[in-house]
Structures are given as structure tokens and as C-alpha cells.
Design goal:
By secondary structure, the chain is an alpha/beta fold. It has 26 helices and 17 strands.
Length: 635
């Protein structure tokens, strides 16, 4: 292998590197269909890249029959190599195999090893950037543009393509295209998630330790004879995150889109069709045959539906069969704690993450490759950015992951404690009296399989580490459906007396986030939103019921959201109120929850008032049909 650019050779710090990945578009198909032509074309392809990389001071470190990877000490040199290669490719007579090569450049840290570079975060982002490029196109990441510091090589320009959402990645990428007078510059829009029909949320964290499982489910869904897969397993095992990853990987496969339908807040089976219609962007289904209307819409479309948390509406399993029979182009991926038990279902039990064998003392580098440990380390760094796996803490981390049976949510909760506990202290608490008390104190209904008890114990243990005020705030947050704003928390959850004052609430929310019991989402309309995983919210809801506060908190919740829609109505009367319309759409689940509680508590006037005001706010807006539907359901 040629000399690689300088990497991290202790004690000197590692300089940032720039990397070039290339790929022959449809290269595998070309090898299958035209092997003789490829045998002749590939040496020319390799020679062009080797020459371009060598002439600009770079070095090859990975080569496959269809891909090429090189490293550079300078970002400008990497751009020059890509430009030279593209120009040569464009003017080469390929004969019977007209190769189209796409390229991408990204800068970031990577470890220099004897066989090349190792840098998963850097290379994962580069691979995702490469896969959205077209044949002949050269994409450049924002990190590489930053390295250039405005000093572009002669003859090279950069075209700003804006921010794009790349598969699997949490952070959007600002993408540029390399342009020059002597290479092709006109291409279709990038094949990013932004341009493919879907409603998939950006993941809150990377999926760790599930590569083989994702591949298995993805392969199963691509089979022509498989149209319904149910991912089963206890709460916290990672069914939803796995389903989202599979769906994201398959957005190119379904021409009419990939759509997730959250059912965790749907407790009335009659509303399942409405939930599916809403996810697809349809207006409220028309009575008296909403199923027929939905089947008619789906009939000629190729769609993947992800029905998430189906255990809440298991009695409607036959509906899934009806949708599949009436719409031959759709496939359904379900997440549920129990199988649907319908014809054609392929159940896929989701196993816990592999845990370390405590009988074998692995060195930190080897231990870090065990999936449960890899997840713990990743989440630990969110609580303690400087956290690293060392010989000193490795035994404790291994013990924690083994104690928690490889249940992802339990591991995340435990890792969230590292802001104030060392791994050794955390392991001692989980194994000692505190851990046993958490198990002993579980409600009777938690006498489920061991892994369910493990998760319940982890949540219970985290809850009892909170002080009395934090516990009260935590359980009151359970009243919110689909997240909430800071203003909503301050109005609904606080007390006039300590400790739940306005100042305490800010600190309390920060504590709950630090301990992984609450999530802070991206800002929307200038406000942050806070939400709980459904499993944690379910636990908080149980504590709220036990506290005797539930009725009062739900009354405040309904009153707050009635006031919100009244304020939106007033804003609409004064003129355009697009911001308010968007805010009400974000609060859809809370509005429904407030309406439902009002109706169940014999306060139908509040529910009718909310629906009537919403109808006025949403007049002429697609959501207006939903408000009218709400009103029609009320007694």
C-alpha cells in the first residue's frame, strides 16, 4: 500500500483528514450482465483513479470491484483528484461498458491503522453522501468546504445544493457540488430522503448493534411472498427504532412512499383507519365506509406502512388483512408486544443486544465491539462527553450491560446516570440493595418475562433517584401526549407553592433530560418541545394515577389546550395565522387527549367548545375536516 497521509501518531495530535469515496453506478449489475466488458473496463477505471490520486498527493487505502477510497492530507488536493478523475472518465471510450462513476468528499477524524483508516462516524457520513449522488457527479460535504477556507483550486467551483437529509444520519448535511467547465455539471435533484415521499422522523440517536438484524428484516420485506412482518418483543427492546431504520433503508423501493403510523395514543380501535389516513396526509375518512375509501386510495400505490405500537389495538388485526387484500401494492411492517396472529404474518422477534461474557476479561478495544457495550458507551458520552472505555472502567461497564440483559432502553437509562455516578458506583447500585429494591417495588402487573422486569426495574430505579419535586414533575408530564412546550409544562405541571415553581421547573426538566427520562426535541416555531418515550410515559402515568393528582392535572391540561385554540381563533380573526395553524397541528395529540378526557369526565361542553373553535380556526384548511369529525363524534 502507498504511504498514507499522516494520521494520529502519538504523542502528536491527529490532523483532520479529507477522504474521497467513488463508486461505479450499477456496478454490481454490470458485473452480472456484462462480465467480459467489465474485465476490460475496470483496469482503465482503476488506472484513472490511481493516477489522479497519486498526482495530487493522496493514497489509496481500499479498493473493491466497484468502489475506491483514498485519503488526503489537504482538502484542496482531494478536490483536484476528483476533478481530474471525472474529466478522464468523461473522455474515456469505455466500449461495451460505459461506466458512470459518482464521487463524494468529506473531512473528519479517522484512525490510521496498518491496513488503512478506521473512522466509522466520518466514513458513515461519507458513504451516505456518496449514495445520493448521480453517475458523474461529485459531492462535497460542508466539513470539506470548511477545510478549504475559501481557497478553491484553480478552475474548480462549488455549487451550493443546500441542506439535505441523508439516510441513517441524525444531523442534516449541507451539500455542495464540484463544478468546472470541463466536466458535467447538470444533474437531477439528489436522491435524498427530503425528496422521497415519507413522514419518517429524523432519528434522535444512531442505531447501534443492529446491523445484521436490519439486514434480515430488510431482505425479508423485499421478498415477493412477504407482505406483513411483525416485529415483536417487550417494551424497550428497540422495535420502533429498528422499524424506522428498515423503513429508511427502503424508501427507494416504494414509489408512493414509506409512512409511519404511530398508534401509541390510539386506544379506540375505531380510530385506526383515521390514524392511517392522517399519516398519509388524507383528510378525515368519509363515513359510512372509511375502510373502503382508504383501500381505494391505496389500491394502485406501492407503499410501505409502518404500524407502530400495535399492541394498543390488537383487536383490529383483521383490518391489516383487509388492507393487504384490497391494496396489492402495499406492504406492512408492524411493531407490537404481541403478534397479530393473522394469515400471512411473518413474526420477527427482536432479541436484546448481545452482552459481554463476564467470564472473559476482554480488553477495552474488544469490549467496545460488543453491541450492548457499544450502545452504553455512545449514550454515556451524551451524559459525560469525556467518557471513554478504559481498562479501569471496562469491568464495571460489562457488568452493567450484563445486569440489564442487553435491553436497549434500560442501557440508555443507566448510561444517563453517568453525569453524577462513576461506572463502578453505577454497577454496584444496580447489583446491590438499590437494584433489588427496584425489583421488589415493581407493581404486581410487572410480573412479566425477565426482560420486561429488567426494563421496569431500570425505570423504577431511575425514578427513585429523583427528589420529591422532580418525581412530581416527572409524573405530571405523563398527561402530555405527543410532547409539549415549556409554556405548557409551566401552566399545567407547576404549583404555586414550592417546589414546583417556575424556576424549579426549568431545573427539573434539565434533570429529567440528563437522566434520560425526558427528551428535548428540535425547536419548532421558536419553542423547544419535550417528550417521553411511550414506555417511560406509561410508567409515569401509573405514578400519576397512584398520586391522586390525575384528575386535577388532566383538568388543567384540557383547560390549557382549550385556551390555546381560543387564542389561535383570535389570531385568525385578526388576520393570517400560519404560525398558529402549524402550532395546532403540532399539538394534535394533546388536543385529542384533552377532548377525550373532557368527554370521559362528563365535561362534554369543554370538548364541544374545543371542536367548535377548531372548526373556525381551521376553516378552509385540510385540518378543518378533522375538527368537524371530532364534533360529529361528541354526544
Amino acid at each position: 500500500m502507498a504511504d498514507l497521509p499522516a494520521g494520529n501518531r502519538p504523542p502528536a495530535p491527529r490532523p483532520a483528514e479529507t477522504f474521497l469515496f467513488t463508486e461505479i453506478v450499477d456496478g454490481t449489475r454490470w458485473w452480472e450482465q456484462h462480465p467480459d466488458a467489465m474485465v476490460a473496463a475496470i483496469p482503465r477505471h482503476d488506472a484513472i483513479l490511481r493516477t489522479a490520486v497519486g498526482a495530487t498527493g493522496g493514497a489509496l487505502f481500499r479498493l473493491t470491484p466497484t468502489t475506491f477510497s483514498a485519503g488526503f492530507a489537504q482538502a484542496g488536493a482531494a478536490l483536484c483528484a476528483a476533478h481530474q478523475a471525472a474529466r478522464a472518465f468523461q473522455h474515456t471510450d469505455w466500449g461495451a461498458a460505459p461506466l458512470r462513476v459518482r464521487m463524494a468528499l468529506h473531512s473528519g477524524p479517522a484512525e490510521l491503522r496498518s491496513d488503512g483508516y478506521f473512522g466509522p462516524p466520518t466514513f458513515n457520513r461519507l458513504a451516505r453522501l456518496l449514495e445520493v449522488a448521480h453517475g458523474g457527479q461529485i459531492l462535497v460535504s460542508a466539513a470539506t468546504v470548511d477545510r478549504l477556507a475559501g481557497a478553491l483550486p484553480p478552475g474548480i467551483r462549488l455549487r451550493d445544493l443546500g441542506e439535505c437529509r441523508l439516510r441513517d444520519l441524525i444531523r442534516f448535511e449541507h451539500v455542495y457540488q464540484l463544478s468546472a467547465d470541463d466536466v458535467q455539471t447538470d444533474f437531477p435533484p439528489l436522491a435524498t430522503l427530503d425528496l422521497r415521499p415519507n413522514n419518517l422522523p429524523a432519528p434522535a440517536s444512531p442505531l447501534i448493534g443492529r446491523d445484521s438484524t436490519v439486514g434480515e428484516v430488510r431482505t425479508l420485506l423485499r421478498r415477493g411472498d412477504v407482505r406483513l412482518i411483525t416485529l415483536t418483543g417487550p417494551a424497550g427492546i428497540g422495535k420502533t427504532r429498528l422499524a424506522l431504520q428498515v423503513a429508511s433503508d427502503l424508501v427507494d423501493t416504494f414509489a408512493a412512499g414509506v409512512w409511519i403510523v404511530p398508534l401509541d395514543l390510539v386506544h379506540d380501535p375505531a380510530r385506526v383507519i383515521a390514524a392511517i389516513s392522517t399519516a398519509l396526509g388524507l383528510t378525515a375518512p368519509a363515513a359510512p365506509a372509511p375502510l373502503v375509501a382508504l383501500q381505494r386510495y391505496l389500491r394502485d400505490r406501492r407503499i410501505l406502512l409502518v404500524l407502530d405500537n400495535f399492541e394498543h389495538v390488537l383487536e383490529t388485526a383483521g383490518l391489516v388483512t383487509q388492507l393487504l387484500s384490497g391494496a396489492p401494492g402495499i406492504k406492512v411492517l408492524v411493531t407490537s408486544r404481541a403478534a397479530l396472529r393473522v394469515y400471512g404474518e411473518h413474526e420477527f422477534p427482536v432479541a436484546p443486544l448481545a452482552i459481554p461474557d463476564l467470564a472473559r476479561a476482554l480488553p477495552p478495544a474488544a469490549l467496545a465491539t460488543v453491541p450492548a457495550v457499544a450502545l452504553f458507551v455512545d449514550r454515556a458520552r451524551a451524559a459525560q462527553p469525556a467518557f471513554t472505555l478504559t481498562a479501569g472502567n471496562a469491568p464495571a461497564v460489562a457488568a452493567i450491560c450484563a445486569r440489564l440483559d442487553g435491553v436497549p432502553l434500560a442501557i440508555e437509562l443507566a448510561a444517563g446516570q453517568l453525569g453524577h455516578l462513576t461506572p463502578r458506583r453505577l454497577a454496584t447500585r444496580l447489583d446491590g440493595a438499590a437494584g433489588r429494591r427496584a425489583l421488589d417495588a415493581l407493581p404486581p402487573r410487572a410480573a412479566h418475562p425477565a426482560r420486561a422486569q429488567t426494563l421496569q426495574a431500570a425505570i423504577h430505579w431511575s425514578y427513585h433517584l429523583l427528589d420529591a419535586g422532580e418525581q412530581r414533575l416527572f409524573r405530571r408530564l405523563a398527561v402530555f401526549a405527543g410532547g409539549c412546550t415549556l409554556d405548557a409544562v409551566e401552566q399545567v405541571a407547576r404549583d404555586d407553592e414550592p417546589p414546583l415553581t417556575q424556576d424549579f421547573i426549568l431545573d427539573g426538566l434539565a434533570t429529567l433530560i440528563d437522566k434520560s427520562l425526558l427528551r428535548r426535541e428540535d425547536e419548532a416555531h421558536g419553542e423547544s418541545r419535550f417528550s417521553m418515550l411511550e414506555t417511560i410515559r406509561e410508567y409515569a402515568r401509573e405514578r400519576l394515577e397512584e398520586s391522586g393528582e390525575a384528575a386535577a392535572i388532566r383538568r388543567r391540561h384540557a383547560a390549557y389546550y382549550l385556551a390555546l385554540v381560543q387564542e389561535a381563533a383570535a389570531a385568525r380573526d385578526r388576520g393570517p395565522a400560519e404560525i398558529w395553524l402549524a402550532r395546532l397541528e403540532a399539538e394534535h395529540d394533546n388536543l385529542r387527549a384533552g377532548r377525550d378526557w373532557s368527554r370521559e369526565a362528563d365535561q362534554g361542553a369543554t370538548a364541544r367548545q374545543m371542536a367548535a373553535v377548531l372548526g373556525r380556526v381551521w376553516e378552509g384548511h385540510p385540518a378543518g375536516a378533522a375538527a368537524r369529525w371530532w364534533l360529529a363524534e361528541l354526544p
